[in-house]
Amino acid sequence: MAGQAEWHRILARSVYIGLVLYAFVAACDCGQVQNDTLTTPHQDNATTAIPATITPSNTTKDETYLGFIAAAVSVAFFGSNLVPIKKVDTGDGMFFQWVFCSAVWCVGLVVNVIQGYPTFYPIAMLGGFLWCTGNVTVVPILKCIGLGMGILIWGSFNLMMGWFSGRFGWFGLNPQDKFTRPELDYVGFGLAVLSVVMFMFVKSEGTRTPSPEEQRLLVSKVNISAAGAEESDESWVDKLSPNQKRLAGILLSACAGCAYGTSFAPVIYPQQHYKGASQNGLDYVFAHFSGVYATATLYFILYAIYMKNRPKVFPRAILPTLLSGLMWGIAESGWFVANQKLQESVSFPIISTGPGLIAALWGVFYFKEIKGARNLLILALAFAVTVAGSLLTAFSY
């Protein structure tokens, strides 16, 4: 009981610190935009229009400093946002996702108010659809291979998809060819691929038997439906063998990473191609989060129809899931700021792989999912490869 209360206090303090840091970054970002607007020289009406492009924003030390703060907030909260629901039964994950995305949309609404209700670009909702589709797999991944392994694998695929789409201009984006040391970019990408292979050799205990106290305080293993019948919490994952769980967890993590890695493309596209579109990443947060919530609602409706209006609902998971969604919304908003201040070639490697390190630390020291000298050695080497790949990719720009 005392241990549970302690980590709840730690998470509450972390959320508070994240909110303060995010408010600081957002306020400074708004101030920078207003100053740029006031100091913009008068343009002659006869001047030829220049197509909208993303220009480097890290031209001052202050902007770079804010970008790294935003990236640090994103890494910490992405790596920890699933901790509140790790020990809470969430069934097949559909109810969890809908509640989670409800909290995400609330964060987007707050950002929209702070930004002064900027123009809503519906195309940015497509990014929310891609992310939410990948997020459907989170609960099965947690049950198959655990928190640490899941985030490490999907984070690596996230990095690779972001690298390909940005480097070669996939999905209509402008290719990123402004590399001062392109050879470092290729080496960094190769190390990211190597890290994925190394993570697959780390064996994780994805599930464990809850203690009687956890069963009593967190969730009952059996829910009583309105008709009085008992409804089991078992999902399709529980019917798999250990090897099948491992394979399913790796494949689902790869699919989730690909979906996550392409979710920013619909947000960057209007910035590059729409005339007069805002270059402030926070102006697209609400549209992106609206796509997340709309997709989650659609999936939950389809799920309720499939379950004949008897979806698996877990009331004790609501508050932890709302906290998890709040942390994710803060992290994603920080990523938007980091993209603007540091450019995607710098922020993407850091934020794609950094959360995996945080999650693995939770898995090793708190959840005890990763054990044994062999596993810890492989994990340490994978950490080193991941960090080296991220740094090389960042320094190549």
From TrEMBL:
<dbReference type="Pfam" id="PF07857">
    <property type="entry name" value="TMEM144"/>
</dbReference>
<feature type="transmembrane region" description="Helical">
    <location>
        <begin position="184"/>
        <end position="202"/>
    </location>
</feature>
<protein>
    <submittedName>
        <fullName>Transmembrane protein 144-like</fullName>
    </submittedName>
</protein>
<feature type="transmembrane region" description="Helical">
    <location>
        <begin position="120"/>
        <end position="138"/>
    </location>
</feature>
<dbReference type="GO" id="GO:0016020">
    <property type="term" value="C:membrane"/>
</dbReference>
<keyword id="KW-0472">Membrane</keyword>
<dbReference type="GO" id="GO:0015144">
    <property type="term" value="F:carbohydrate transmembrane transporter activity"/>
</dbReference>
<keyword id="KW-0812">Transmembrane</keyword>
<feature type="transmembrane region" description="Helical">
    <location>
        <begin position="145"/>
        <end position="164"/>
    </location>
</feature>
<feature type="transmembrane region" description="Helical">
    <location>
        <begin position="376"/>
        <end position="395"/>
    </location>
</feature>
<dbReference type="InterPro" id="IPR012435">
    <property type="entry name" value="TMEM144"/>
</dbReference>
<feature type="transmembrane region" description="Helical">
    <location>
        <begin position="318"/>
        <end position="338"/>
    </location>
</feature>
<feature type="transmembrane region" description="Helical">
    <location>
        <begin position="247"/>
        <end position="269"/>
    </location>
</feature>
<feature type="transmembrane region" description="Helical">
    <location>
        <begin position="65"/>
        <end position="83"/>
    </location>
</feature>
<dbReference type="InterPro" id="IPR010651">
    <property type="entry name" value="Sugar_transport"/>
</dbReference>
<comment type="similarity">
    <text>Belongs to the TMEM144 family.</text>
</comment>
<feature type="transmembrane region" description="Helical">
    <location>
        <begin position="284"/>
        <end position="306"/>
    </location>
</feature>
<keyword id="KW-1133">Transmembrane helix</keyword>
<feature type="transmembrane region" description="Helical">
    <location>
        <begin position="350"/>
        <end position="367"/>
    </location>
</feature>
<feature type="transmembrane region" description="Helical">
    <location>
        <begin position="95"/>
        <end position="114"/>
    </location>
</feature>
